[in-house]
Write a structure and sequence with these properties.
The chain folds into 2 domains: about 5-185 and about 380-395, Glycogen Phosphorylase B (Rossmann fold, 3-Layer(aba) Sandwich), CATH 3.40.50.2000; about 190-370, 3-Layer(aba) Sandwich (Rossmann fold), CATH 3.40.50.2000. It is about 45% helix and about 15% strand. The protein has 16 helices and 14 strands. The strands form 2 sheets. It has a 7-stranded parallel sheet with strand order 3-2-1-4-5-6-7, sandwiched between helices. It has a 7-stranded parallel sheet with strand order 10-11-9-8-12-13-14, with helices on both faces. Bound molecules: uridine-diphosphate-N-acetylglucosamine.
């Protein structure tokens, strides 16, 4: 019997996409290897839209995650939401017309996710959305709009947790399109833990010092911070409420802050530089005695994972970090008033503190004093989500 080849296009665009696509590529390679006798071979192309384009925001992730070179780079770059979404749609439609794939697979909730899904369905190419069904119920977030619209038009919706299935059903999505598979971000985390342990970022930041016995104990407890949501950094009042809390907390433990480019820009626009200490992994000015908020450049995947594993508190407004801290059992304070990942609160280590200065301080001090929240890992966050997705798609399509 003749073997048939299915052509899939996998899309990445922005930083949080890379660690979600990497396990899917491994699972496809494994499927092709282990199903040599089966009638279907999956041939995939990796397409980078170019929404994120810097070494720190994109290239270093390809290296850390051993991702293959993209087959095509659409080079769309930055812009307003409409400009960015529109440019991706125009370029991706051209590519679809040439390649004529059997399936387009998109992940997450960034502008590239929606743009590629929309271009595909209009050309009647089936779309699989990985990380479907998450809802913050806050439509002022660009990611919420991207999630709602991508889910409404996708053919296969792969969800990370039961709450996501419920959301989709309430929106009228047919049960036979929804597949609860677990979390691909967790697949990446578990797969890379050992590699991350070898990162020397703690030494680079002077957070450890080798002893005569060769051990490298931490010289100080520290808090790890990420902050880039428009609602937190594009409004000076909201940003200052958070900075006031951070300044107070950083009198007790240093805060390490790998800053997103948009946050750096906003710090300059609002002239807030005086609140931060500039630390570079290559010329660290951090010593255990130096409290304060230490800004460093955005870090690669493995370095960030290593810093997260050893931190006392993680504070963030990111989505994925809420999940990663739950899996690692590290207390997480989320600087938002909603989350699209409620399971990290009901099951995990996450607490919402928004930009409430006093709450951020109180919850941080609880953790520093050893009274932080304990959590457990949600079911199916076991490192096998990508395998389940590839099996379902290969057998269904
Ligand atoms: C995007 C995603 C967000 C995700 C975040 C992670 C959307 C709507 N938002 O937000 O969900 O959490 O990525 O990083 O898709 N820039 C650079 N270099 C880069 C990329 C961006 O300097 O490689 C700067 C540009 O000045 C740009 C700004 O960062 O204007 C914002 O980038 P953009 O991709 O538009 O949105 P993010 O805020 O990064």
């Amino acid at each position: 019997m003749r073997k048939c080849t299915r052509k899939w296009i996998l899309v990445v665009g922005a930083r949080p996409n890379f660690m979600k696509i990497a396990p899917l590529i491994r699972a496809i390679d494994e499927y092709n290897r282990s199903c040599q006798s089966s009638l279907v071979t999956i041939q995939y192309q990796l397409i980078h839209t170019g929404q994120h384009y810097d070494l720190n925001m994109s290239d270093s992730f390809f290296r850390d995650l051993s991702l293959p070179e993209p087959n095509a780079h659409l080079g769309v770059g930055s812009g307003t939401h409409a400009e960015q979404t529109g440019r991706v749609m125009i370029e991706f439609e051209r590519l679809l017309q040439e390649e004529k794939p059997d399936l387009v697979l998109v992940v997450g909730d960034v502008n590239s996710t929606l743009a590629c899904a929309l271009a595909s369905v209009k050309l009647h190419v089936p779309v699989a959305h990985v990380e479907a069904g998450l809802r913050s119920f806050d439509r002022s977030m660009p990611e919420e709009i991207n999630r709602l619209l991508t889910d409404a038009i996708s053919n296969y919706l792969f969800t990370p947790s039961p709450d996501a299935d419920e959301n989709l059903k309430k929106e009228g999505i047919l049960q036979n399109k929804i597949f609860l598979v677990g979390d691909v971000m967790v697949d990446s985390l578990l797969f890379n833990l050992e590699k991350a342990k070898k990162s020397n970022i703690l030494e680079q930041l002077n957070l450890t010092q080798k002893t005569s016995t060769g051990h490298c104990p931490l010289l100080t407890a520290y808090c790890l911070l990420t902050l880039h949501r428009p609602s937190n950094v594009d409004n000076k009042g909201a940003f200052l409420k958070i900075i006031t809390a951070l300044t107070e907390i950083s009198k007790r433990i240093p805060i390490i802050f790998p800053a997103h480019p948009r946050t750096r820009k906003q710090i300059e626009i609002f002239a807030l530089q005086r609140y931060f200490i500039n630390s570079s992994p290559h010329a660290p000015c951090l010593t255990p005695q130096t409290c304060g908020i230490h800004i460093v450049d955005p870090l690669g995947y493995l370095d960030f994972l290593k810093l997260m594993m050893h931190s006392t508190i993680v504070m963030t407004d990111s989505g994925g970090i809420q999940e990663e801290t739950t899996v690692l059992g590290i207390p997480c304070l989320t600087l938002r008033d909603t989350t699209e990942r409620p399971i990290t609160i009901t099951h995990g280590t996450n607490v919402l503190v928004w930009n409430d200065t006093q709450k951020i301080i109180d919850e941080s001090f609880k953790i520093i004093d050893g009274r932080g929240k304990n959590g457990k890992c949600p079911e199916m966050w076991d490192g096998k989500a990508a395998e389940r997705i590839v099996d379902i798609l290969a057998n269904t399509l």
